[in-house]
Structures are given as C-alpha cells and as structure tokens.
Amino acid sequence: MQQDSGLRVPGVDKTVAENVFFVAIILKGETRIEKLASSGHLVNSIRSPILANPVLPSHQSPGSNYVTTDRHCDDLRQSTDHSTLVSQLRAHGLSLDDRGTSPPQSPSVPYTEYAFVESQQLMSLPSEDVALLTSKGCLSLPTSNEFDEFIHEYFKHIHPSVPVLNEAEFWRIYRNDRSTGPKISLFVLQSLLLASCPFVSLETLRRCGFDDMRDAQKHLYNKANLLFELRTERRSHANAQGAVLLTHYTSPEDPEAGSLWVTRAIEHAMLLDSHPSLVLENVAISLKKRLWWSILLRDQSLCIGLRHRPRVTSIGFHGWSDWLSIEDFSEELHQSRVYDYDTKKRLLDELQKQCELAVVLTDLDILEEIWPTS
User: Which of 40, 162, 283, 289 is placed for a possible disulfide with 275 were both Cys, Cβ 3.0 to 4.6 Å?
Assistant: First the structure.
C-alpha cells in the first residue's frame, strides 16, 4: 500500500510540537475540527456537552512510564499504598473489603493485594471519593484463578484486533510478585475485565458474584467508568488505552456509549504528544501506532454496527503516515501465552488487512460527505 494514503497517524515520527495536524470529530452530525498548532499548544480543546474534560493533573511528574507503567513510583511499596487507603477509609467507617449495595457480593480482593497493579492518583483524591470507589467495588479485583481467565480470554479474543497493550510486557508485569518495578493501571485492568467479559465462562462469572453476562458487563462497566470520572488515572496513555477497551460496552439504554469512549480515547491520545506536557510519559512509538490504529478500527466497527458517521476521518489526520508492521509486534510474537508464533503471525496479517479496509471505509465516508448521493 502506498505511504501517501489519506490516513495520517499523529505522533509516529515527530511530536505535536513539530507538526500541525487536525483531528475531525463528528458528534451528533456536527464536525468539529480541533487544531494543534506547531507551537505545541492546544489552540482549541475538544468541547462537547456530553464529554468529560481530559484529565489534566495539577503538577508535573519527574518520572516516565512505559505502556501503563510509571517507573518513578517503583520505590513505593504496595504495603504503603494499602496502609494509606485503610486510613482514609476508616474515617468513613469502611474498609477495602466492603462491597457496598450496588456491586454484587463477590469473592474479590483489594487491588493492593496484587503487586503489579497501581492507581497512583488515588492517593491524592479526597477521602470521600476513595470511600465512594470502595463502596462501589472499584478498588477490588477478582481472585487469582478468575482473574487469570479474564486475562487469557482478553488476549485470545480482544487483543488480536485491538492491540493497545504490549502482550509480552503485560505478562512480565502480571507475573511479577515484587512490589517494585513497572505496574499496570487499575483503570486499564477494570476496562480489560469489561472487554473480555463476554468470552468468560458463565461458571466463572457466577463465582465472581454475577447473575449472567449482562449483569457482569453492567457492573464491570460502572466500575471502570467511575474510576475514569473521578480521575483516578493521570496518565494520558493509560486513559486512552482504557477508553479504547471501554468502546466494547454495549447497552440498549446507552447505545452511544461506545462512540463516546472513542472520542475520549482521541482526546487523551492527542494529549500524549502535547507540549509542554504536565505528565512526562515515555511511550514507545510502536505503542502510539497501536493506539491510533485501534481507535480507528473501533470507530469504524461502531459506525457499521450503529450506522452513524465516524468520529475519525481520513482528512482529520494531517501528520505522519505509518502502517503497523511486524517490527511493532516482534516481541509478543515470540512471547504470547495464548497463541504460538505462526498463529500470532497470521493474526497480525489479518490485523494489517483490517487497517487497510478501515482506511478505505473512512475515505468513502468522506467522499459521501463531500458529494452526497441524495
């Protein structure tokens, strides 16, 4: 395929500070062109009455992160986080084991029991917010056996077509029992549980306290959504990853939820390369490419399923084009715990074809807007 295709993926070879690009977001039939100037400052932020504002932390962090990790917190022990949370909750007569009345009574454990999980911003939230998150079960995760099944089903069914995570890096972190080292965002994990939920056995869902798959989806989505709304994650990359995974939520009561999360994913993906950045994030170029292509694929999938205009358009990207390549997946091709090398390679070939198709479909949407058929 020619490199001068209509699609442009920002943040690949140069940062926003070096380029000017536009992101077109179509909300309820209106196209809003958001411009990032070559000075690197956001000239116009994405505005919509139905959108939450991007999470902008109040101070700059000196650390850097990889995937969903933040290395400057490596020296903080998990036990310290646990003690801090316990102290906050005791002031409200709660504990991390409280389930509240909204989530089902389930055999889950506080996230601090897992050395590989973090929610860095949680420590700076008001104690009332922490109490609310605890009472709704947002700070709890399934026990290890059930957790393993959710993770396995995610990499088996969701990851091949929405590769926002580095599978090899994920497994290294997931299997690490030490309190130091890279960690995975709690918001990303709760979003992952929601995305993989339809593929988990009914027996496992019931062991987790859910009545059925629909009941599980509802409660898992509410947990992840509340974590996002209360701004428990400060890093744009983790917020964008979680938002992409939450596009898998479907509900007859809220049919536009998936499209809203596409827009939120775009917001935070744009902030990744904004300059000056309030949070220093060292995200690999291959992960940025994965993120932007995943956003496009999910957007097109929702457009076909819901029969509405795309949020992302080919003329909306005016930056540097770069297709997903085998080099972007070289590590996980050999280190997947779900598929062997040959299967992973075939799945990657199919993913690349899906990307090509998404570009064609997006261009057709633009042509229809320019020259409507009726």
Answer: 40
Question: Which of 358, 362, 248, 233 shows the shortest CA–CA distance to 293?
Answer: 358
HSE-CB of 352 using CA atoms within 13 angstroms: 15
Strands (DSSP E) contained in 144-274 are: 184-185
CB 221 within 8 A of CB 190: no
Give tens-digit pLDDT for 137-165.
Answer: 999 999 999 999 999 999 999 999 999 99
Three-class SS state of 129:
helix
d(CA 3, CA 321) in angstroms, rounded, equals 7
Q: Which two tokens stand for residue 59?
A: 């101070």
DSSP-assigned beta bridge partners for residue 118 = 185
Q: How far apart are CA 361 and CA 358, in angstroms?
A: 5
Distance spanning both ends of the chain, measured CA to CA: 32
pLDDT of residue 206: 95
Give the C-alpha separation, 75 to 361, whole Å: 47
Q: Note whether 116 and 68 are within 8 A (CB).
A: no
Q: Give the pLDDT confidence of 182-214 residue by residue, as tens digits.
A: 999 999 999 999 999 999 999 999 999 999 999
| pLDDT value, residue 319 | 35
Say if strands 21-27 and 30-36 run parallel, antiparallel, or are unpaired. antiparallel
Integer CA distances (angstroms), 96 to 86, 183, 208, 242, in order: 7, 20, 17, 23
Angle between helices 285-306 and 341-370 (to 10 degrees): 60
Residue reference for tokens 């890093």: 235
d(CA 252, CA 218): 11
Cα–Cα nearest to 262, from 218, 316, 223, 216: 316
Domain boundaries, the chain: 106-363
**pLDDT at 23 > cutoff 50:** no
pLDDT digits (tens, 9 = 90+) for 249-283: 988 888 889 999 999 999 999 888 776 666 677 89
Question: Does residue 38 carry a pLDDT above 60?
Answer: no
The pLDDT, as a whole number, for residue 68 is 39
Q: How many C-beta atoms surround the C-beta of residue 270 within 10 A?
A: 22
Catalogue the E-assigned strands of 124-256: 140-142, 184-185
More confident residue, 204 or 42: 204
Ramachandran quadrant class, 307 (left: phi over 0; alpha: psi -120 to 50; beta: rest): left
